[in-house]
Amino acid sequence: MALIPFTLSLVLEQFAKLIYPGVLLSVALIVLDRASVVHVPGWAIAVIVLTGIIPYHIAAARYRLWRDARKAASLGAILPPRWEGKAIGSRDLLKMLDHAWQHGYLSDQLWEKFSELGSTYDLYIFWAHDYCTTDVNIVKSVLATEFDNWVKGKGFDSFMRSVLGTGVFNADGDLWKFHRSMTRPFFSRERIHHYEVFDRHAEEAISKMKDRLREGYAVNFADAISRFTLDTATEFLFNKCVHSLRDSTLPYPHNAPPMLHDLPLSAADQFARAFMDAQGAISARARTGWVWPWFEIFRSKTAAPMRVVDAFVAPILKQALERAKIAKESGLVGGSKADEIKDDECLLDHLVRHTTDPVILHDEVLNIMLAGRDTTAGMMTVTVYFLSQYPNVLKRLREEILEKVGPINRPTYDDIREMKYLRAVLNESMRLYPAVPWNMRYAVQDALLPNSEPNGKPFYIPAGASVSYSVHCMHRRKDYWGPDAEEFDPDRFLDHRLHKYLTPNPFIFLPFNAGPRICLGQQFAYNEMSFFIVRLLQNFETISLDIDAQPPDTRPPAEWAGAPGRKGVEKFWPKAHLTVYADGGLWVKFKEVSSDI
User: Fold this and answer.
1) Which of 100, 150, 228, 475 is the right S-S partner for 104, CB 3.0 to 4.6 Å?
2) Which spans are transmembrane here (predicted)?
């Protein structure tokens, strides 16, 4: 255990950088005084130092801006337009953006600034550069062609360390390669079509939903699907399902009798809630920027939820390590290569063959859990929302399912591969609401990034600066997707628009990231989502939102009506921490398929 808490160590490091000019100045004045060169009373030294620190740092920041502009000009480049507030450190801008993030439509303020300043601008808060972009050429450069110069970096690590640790989503360099090499074999094609696991948990989830519907209440689909993905993920990860569906009661809507809300939380429920709270805390850190540790000096906002998360994961890790130890002592281990997967082997047992370091195992398990549960649940929630709003799409999708699979058969890998419209529906849902709407990288060295604006001069990005790319906004650009970019239309992935827009420019669609860090579980996610949607629509023929069941404070505000784009038409409130979710859940009613089918 570290002698100094991580947050406090960051504060001390920043404090040292803050005061070091004053320390140097005071030492210089004391030396000059003792050398009788100049006499400066002690009180005067204190006043000079204390009153000079802030002006010094402001001047230093302005000097860096001037230096960057000179460097850019010398390279035939330009700096992106800067967006800063009027208060010192742009505190007013930070406050406005935080309020918009919590109370507005997803990416709203940032999208407006893209319309005003162009596809790339410098969000300059607390004298730090964060270059925001929706330019596909910049995103391609950062994620692929100039991959080695763009890392998660120390800044990203400081936001995420207390939750993601050193896992694959937070690691760089050799450690990232190590994590990647451990998990890659498990997501090969041979390991991703164990549909009996999907089927078992899908049947349980749908049965639970039917029971609730027969009581006359709407179902929070976001909650039900999160339980499905949690049970599926834990069985694949640990060979031990946490049974969040079996051991828990689906929540009742807010307008149900109070007695129905006073239900105890299972261990799985507590874990899920704590993990979401922890993600919310690190998302807030990322929005606050490098000054976030000062707001958590006395209490880390991730400490309490992570105690619950760790208590949930620790026994599972302990059992895996004990199994590995027993197997080794009994001579049952050996002979097979580290990247070979045994038939009965779960991901955790596979990881234990690579390392028995409990910290690495803990971090990697949570990283994969985030990918396996939260992202997939969010995407299926969005898909069901769109199916509730576009009955023509739902009808056509059911027809494809009944034609390819039938009303009761379990879908196979080949069935799902042949269902082109199902894939198009999923893709269109992920286009409008990608699981990870924003991501970022830090420049290792000074960089020149392509500029798609008319002047054509590249953008100069100084070393250490971050580039935040918005997949959410990029997926809605009309110059990338056509004039109907804000409309939900799965056919864009099937008709002439596919070859006009996406085929020649594949980086405009990044639901699973791209480049060397592309999601290893991409095909697993497609299979899981496809399987569940098939089973869902074999059981239900219509889907409708129940607005009355939606908690009032999580309904889209009335003032959104008539706003441009999706904001003006959505009937749910999309939000995000690390991943997209429906605020307050997605309360829906399903009509069961007639029994005579």
Assistant:
1) 100
2) 40-61
